[in-house]
Amino acid sequence: MRTIAVINQKGGCGKTTVAVNLAAALGELEKKVLLVDMDPQSHASLSLDISSQEVEYTTYDLLKNPRVTAEDATCRYSDHLDVIPSSPVLGAIEQELAGRDARETRLASKLARVDDMYDYAVIDSPPNVGLLTFNALMSAGEVVIPVDPSIFSLQGVGKLRETVELLENETKHRVTVSILVNNIEKRTNFSKNLVDELERLHGHELMDVTISHSVKYKEASLRGVSIFGIPRSDKLKWEFLTLARELEDRSSLIDTADMGEWMEKLHGPRVTSGSVIFSVDAPAADSVYLTGEFTNWSREGLRMEKDGEDGLWKVAVDLDSGEYEYRYIIDGVWIKDPRNVDSVLNEFGQENSLLIV
Ligand SMILES: Nc1ncnc2c1ncn2[C@@H]1O[C@H](COP(=O)(O)OP(=O)(O)OP(=O)(O)O)[C@@H](O)[C@H]1O
Ligand SMILES: [Mg+2]
Fold this sequence. Notes:
Layout: E1 2-6, H1 15-28, E2 33-37, H2 43-47, H3 59-64, E3 75-76, E4 81-84, H4 93-96, H5 106-112, E5 120-124, H6 131-139, E6 142-147, H7 151-171, E7 176-181, H8 189-202, H9 216-223, H10 234-249, H11 256-266, E8 270-271, E9 276-281, E10 288-292, E11 302-303, E12 305-307, E13 312-317, E14 323-330, E15 333-335, E16 343-345, E17 351-356
Parallel strand pairs: 1-5, 1-6, 2-4, 2-5, 6-7
Antiparallel strand pairs: 3-4, 8-9, 9-13, 10-11, 10-14, 12-13, 14-15, 14-17, 16-17
The structure holds adenosine-5'-triphosphate and magnesium ion.
Magnesium ion binds near residues 16, 39, 43 and 124.
């Protein structure tokens, strides 16, 4: 699955319009697409006529509750498009997760588990750079930054670029940046000058396709459909299909090896078709055991073997579908899995790692 985050801290530049219609365009190209609404305003969900009141789970539950999976929170919109909707309570998540582990990677770890169900995930993000935008960025291999034709957007892109670079340096997680001009009156000199200036500043990151200004986008969101559900809008559909194809062609720029390694560090045990492989990094340890619900929390647990010289201890376990709490015992000390962001409190007030197979 390729994950594209649509971000810009500037309000109203077209993030939601681009996210919704890009997701729909990829669907038109027969791709299987998951649209994730990470904005408490819920505009992406509402513009596809999905209200948080009608669904059981939203992105709020996905980030808050380790037991809610991406599949639980998914609504089917069409054959090719699924949506994880948002709700206004998502606005409180930053405070609610304050001081908690791996706050920025919660979405990434949930999406990693539906990786083979979709060709693309497209994430709509809110108009600020906070926890929700960081979650979007950490989940994504690619970023699309829509800019509307104004002088403020030029400055905004520079600032956002710095944020992305900071994140890349801190996390070693690289993203491909694509800048997309949206809401443009193509024939005006002002627009032409703006595109020239963006090209001078950002070179190959600027996308060839631009998205025209049209009232049909408002009409579409009022009707609860994408532009592909609006009659007589062939030019607009063509622009979004061209955007989808241009992004497809950019795939070679993405360092997927880096992404894979990073993902593995993040979501703990690897679920393969035959078994679940648990691994923990403990180069100096003499003995490492895995224990959990599947061993009745026995002190002996399952003995793990040191794998080569890199200090990684591993064991493969056959587990049926379900939920499992577990911990590692490293030289007699019980710890939760440092590689797994999902955990629940046990009766002693300590955290058990949580695995959902
Ligand atoms: N290409 C376009 N042509 C005409 N109107 C557009 C276009 N793109 C966006 N708009 C309109 O501009 C408004 C803001 O767009 P949108 O909601 O997509 O921006 P946003 O960046 O998601 O905003 P926010 O920062 O609040 O999330 C909407 O009313 C939308 O219909
Ligand atoms: Mg929006």
